[in-house]
Amino acid sequence: MPDLSAFPITKRWPARHPELLQLYSLPTPNGVKVSIMLEEIGLPYEVHLVDFGKDDQKTAEFLSLNPNGKIPAILDPNGPGGRPLPLFESGAILQYLAEKTGKLLPEDAARRYQAIQWVHFQMGGIGPMFGQVGFFHKFAGKDFEDKRPLDRYVSEAKRLLGVMETHLSGRQWFMDDDYTIADISMLGWVRNLIGFYGAGDLVEFSQFKSVGAWLERGLARPAVQRGLNIPKRP
């Protein structure tokens, strides 16, 4: 039985099954990347809710695993060399799990890096820009008199959707017929943009037909449907 007692995070979130991968998360667009991935690859795991309403992400125990204070993060008792591996940043976790299991990342070296480039596209563009649209359209930023920040992020979100649209035209997934971590990284963000953020009309989402069809295909996957609700909110 693996001993995870050296990791302070297990004091606040005890591992009932320390032999399983431990996931610390919340069902946000970033958080669900990893729960969807774990559901897709069928790797057993134990999930722990990091409640932002209680500032769990700011506690010393959580910061010991992720000093950036963001979700998701994992603790894999069966990491490289058989040693426990703590890991944060959703993109890094997706790549780690794909390489650990040999799933959802092309074996061909060139295609592998092409898939990874789209994950970085999401991490550097889709997530930050869509998140800012949400802040300035739905949350506190909506009350700002100066609408230039909202206009700036809406414009950039539309540009990014255009990049996705051009690439997905004639393709089922970002890597043609292969569903990969590139798709997983983006599904929750696009869903959030037009759903929870209510910004579909704002970014004129209906004009991005290929993106819309890709989103429908992704959301129809049973593993995606499960992963979008893991962990359960309080």
TrEMBL record:
InterPro entries hit by this protein: Glutathione-S-Trfase_C-like (IPR010987), Glutathione-S-Trfase_C_sf (IPR036282), Glutathione_S-Trfase (IPR040079), Glutathione_S-Trfase_N (IPR004045), GST_C (IPR004046), Thioredoxin-like_sf (IPR036249)
PROSITE patterns: GST_CTER, GST_NTER
Domain GST C-terminal: 108-234
Stored Pfam families: GST_C, GST_N
Domain GST N-terminal, first and last residues per copy: 18-105
Superkingdom of origin: Bacteria
Family: Belongs to the GST superfamily.
Protein name: Glutathione S-transferase N-terminal domain-containing protein
